[in-house]
Design goal:
With 348 residues, the protein is of the alpha/beta class. The protein has helices at 14-25, 61-64, 81-101, 141-151, 178-192, 202-206, 215-227, 244-255, 267-273, 275-285, 292-295, 298-304, 316-320, 330-343, and strands at 5-9, 29-34, 45-48, 69-72, 108-112, 158-164, 167-168, 213-214, 232-236.
């Protein structure tokens, strides 16, 4: 029987880092693949490749031939959904096809989808979202991933799609890192002497139900999927639902700030204008990252904090299949994340 050997694509992202840690702690042999020249974690094999270019995997057979499992969370965003779907489909398929070509004993492919698979990026979708809900009008990169995964069944490769929503975890340079964005915004509110007003409309603050997913929970789910042989798609969230109005005052209190009233603003515009303020703060307090864009990007918050309808997932399917980790409180997850940012010297 082949040794458990997982190949992780996207290991530097907010999800990939958590999954890497989970497999490390479980004693797996690990190889990572990405554009970077070095492994994101020491002690593991690494393949430098641009997955959009299949030829960049030439010569990587030694690192691929023993892979038994693939975890895929690589993402190449593009504002054009057609281009995004084509490019991301090509990346995923290039890697899987190269594994099969090398004769790797690939038994399972686990890949990440998310709210976009339900149409969350369009601002409204059927809620609570279930895994068997109708697709929105294409294209969508996640449809392409799943359709390709289904073709692998005839080759003896099983698949799992994990569908988290609004992932809270530690990484730098990720385009969708809401936890870091809250930390960045709160620190700047304190620096500028302003209340920590919710940067979206009142309806988004008081009315809309939302759910979050702690990144380490996705690591747990990835391990569960391979050990339980969990086939198909599974929604993964902390397990609770919330309104921002219930949690935001706790976040403001953590910073020692007043809450104020919701005021819809563009964080993307205002964080850009406050870059000199952040750089001065980083220098003064010896913070680890003087570039606020590396900490978090305001554009993601401009979307999330302006959603005015419920945006929640039904997680019954994963629970019925035996995944018992979705018992977290999202306010506690966010507060732990802020503590972690402070420990990493990302915020004062």
């Amino acid at each position: 029987m082949a040794e458990n050997h997982v190949l992780i694509a996207g290991a530097t992202g907010v999800i990939g880092k958590a999954v890497l840690s989970a497999f490390e702690n479980d004693g797996w042999r690990i190889t990572t693949v990405g554009r970077g020249a070095t492994a994101p974690s020491s002690g593991h094999g690494h393949i430098q490749a641009d997955l959009l270019d299949s030829a960049s995997l030439d010569g990587a057979e030694a690192g691929l031939k023993d892979v038994t499992h693939l975890f895929y969370s690589a993402l190449k965003p593009n504002p054009d959904p057609g281009i995004e779907a084509d490019e991301n489909a090509a990346m995923f398929e290039h890697l899987v096809n190269r594994l099969l070509k090398t004769g790797a004993p690939l038994g399972r492919v686990t890949f990440v989808q998310g709210g976009k698979v339900y149409g969350a990026h369009l601002g409204v979708y059927k809620t609570p979202a279930r895994e068997d809900d109708s697709r929105h009008f294409p294209p969508n990169l996640y449809f392409r991933h799943e359709d390709f995964a289904r073709t692998l069944e005839s080759k003896g490769v099983r698949w799992t799609a994990l569908r988290p929503d609004i992932v809270i975890g530690h990484s730098l340079g990720s385009p969708m890192n809401l936890g870091n964005l809250i930390g960045l915004y709160g620190a700047l509110c304190k620096r500028t002497g302003t209340a920590m007003q919710f940067p979206g409309p009142d309806r988004a603050y008081r009315d809309a139900l939302v759910n979050l997913t702690a990144a380490p929970l996705i690591g747990e789910a990835a391990l569960w999927a391979v050990k339980a042989q969990a086939d198909g798609a599974f929604n993964i969230t902390n397990g609770d639902v919330m309104r921002w109005s219930h949690i935001w005052p706790k976040l403001a209190d953590w910073f020692g700030l007043e809450v104020g009233e919701p005021q819809p603003i563009s964080l993307q515009q205002r964080l850009k204008a406050l870059q000199p303020v952040w750089k001065a703060l980083a220098q003064e307090r010896k913070l680890a990252e003087p570039d606020p864009d590396r900490v978090a990007l305001g554009a993601f918050g401009d979307f999330i904090f302006h959603v005015q309808t419920d945006a929640i997932f039904d997680v019954t399917k994963a629970r019925q299949a035996g995944f018992n980790g979705m018992t977290l409180r999202s306010d506690e997850v966010l507060l732990r994340h802020l503590e972690g940012m402070r420990e990493r010297r990302l915020i004062p």
